[in-house]
Amino acid sequence: MNNKEKQQPQTTWAERVRVTNSSTRFSLDPIPRCTGETKLTIKDDCFMDDVDQWTRCLVGFFPGFRLPFQAVNTIASRIWKHCGLEHVMATSNGFILFRFKTEDELHEVLGKGPWMFGGKNIILQQWHPHYSFDKSKITTLPMWIRLKGLPFPLWTTQGLSHAASMVGKPLSCDEHTHEYTRLDYARVCVEVDATLPYVHHFEIDCSLSADPIRIEVEYEWKPKRCEKCKVFGHSCPPPQTQQIYIQKTPLDPSHLTTVQPLTVTHQEATTSNTVPVLTTPQPPPPQTLSQNTPTATPTLDTTVRVAPPQPQPDKQPNQDTTLAITLDKQPTHHTHLATIGMLETDASICLENRMA
């Protein structure tokens, strides 16, 4: 084969986009362009032309994980091939759509949930016109719960609906609950709101019992719920607290104030003829109390009582006569009298030391 045969003829752009097979060509309505408008208004009848094929679809996604489409298609075709599965589709942001032949078969698959694909939980929900294919805006999810302790007279459509409404929006119940073939708990499917906290128990007040009946709620599977964003599918980490360490500086000894004791030499005490006056804190001024009835003013006894004279010892040799203390020159204040008594004691001690 020569080089000319290997070269293919060049095709134009018109030939590439031209549809040659009439079976793949689907014509649209030739609606004229709306000029001068930036918003398109669609009537409701336009949505209802082929909405049935979407109401028979289950929308699923894996929270925090993304399984390859080929693996999802293989698993779904194997486990749901007897449940009327027709087609499996996927979006670019991780949502998978499973279309069934009838809605009854769709609800049968939901009733047998929750499901796991490849060891990962998949969240399934029936498609509705207001469904948002945004994982950050999923505020409601269907969940299967078990109501333990529910009285048997309430195992009816009305009774189960009232009991399930304490947890979420009632959707359905399984076959065992409807046929009373399993009496350990009532299994119902409810639509849980992410903006509300999970309910784990509640009480029923009815005529069946004098005391309130406690109902325990058990979730077969709870997806991640963000307390901050109020959505399902993720959980924001709590705010981290930063610890600040402050180093303690050692205390400078130069800043400390030392109190030096007062020392008086013997010569200073003997050469002074006057008694030193000690500075004492003055008492606070008396407070005047206002009373309705007059009271007697207390009188202060100012009489100075002088102790009787003590016998003086005989004059000894080398006795210093400058230590004589005259009481008649000192004031009669009680603090000065106490000071004089202290000095008399010190003087007597000094005399005894000199005599010794």
Task: Give a verbal description of the structure.
The protein is an alpha+beta fold and 356 residues long. Among the domains are: 50-129, Alpha-Beta Plaits; 137-219. It has nine helices and ten strands. The protein has helices at 3-6, 13-17, 52-55, 69-79, 103-111, 157-164, 175-179, 266-271, 334-355, and strands at 57-61, 85-90, 96-100, 115-117, 120-126, 140-148, 169-173, 186-193, 201-204, 213-219. Strands 2-3-1-5-4 form a five-stranded antiparallel sheet. The chain has a five-stranded antiparallel sheet with strand order 7-8-6-10-9. Strand 4 (115-117) and strand 5 (120-126) form a beta hairpin. The longest helix is centred in the last third of the chain and has 22 residues, at 334-355. Residues 272-319 are annotated as: Disordered. Residues 52-134 form the DUF4283 domain. InterPro entries: At4g02000-like (IPR040256), DUF4283 (IPR025558). Residues 288-303 have a biased composition (Low complexity).
Give the helix/strand layout:
Blueprint (H helix, E strand, L loop, with lengths): L2 H4 L6 H5 L34 H4 L1 E5 L7 H11 L5 E6 L5 E5 L2 H9 L3 E3 L2 E7 L13 E9 L8 H8 L4 E5 L1 H5 L6 E8 L7 E4 L8 E7 L46 H6 L62 H22 L1
Antiparallel strand pairs: 1-3, 1-5, 2-3, 4-5, 6-8, 6-10, 7-8, 9-10
